[in-house]
Amino acid sequence: MLTQLITKIFTGEAGLFITRLRAVAAIYAVMAALAMGLVFFLLLAIFIFTAQRLGPITASLLFAFVWLLLLLAAYVALVMARRPPKQRANDRLQRDIASVASVAAISNLPLIVRSLRRRRSLLLVPIAAFGAWGIARGIRGARSWRD
Q: Partner of 37 at 20 to 30 A CA spacing, among 13, 58, 143, 146?
């Protein structure tokens, strides 16, 4: 549309083009107003249907809750969109690092299993760590149970 405007300016037909553009803008404004009316009456019909089924107060509370959820979703989208690009790039970098680390861990899994077959005593380290964690958690749970 911008290239058409530039060519019309050079050929001298800019006035006619601007007039058509105004007419199109007016038609779009009327269409937007009609669409808003359509949405309003559609929501009104849904509300009346719900009010007949559930009662007016329950329907009002249900509609209020749905609109609250939509408002919260829009707020979350706004907060996510407002994040600075540097922070988004940092988050993307962290995801990439995590995926590379997981691929490296999976690719080294056969080597780890082979070393565990040779030296079974290496299994004692994670078993002892989980055992100590379980004992500590059990003691903490017993203390909170007594209080």
A: 58
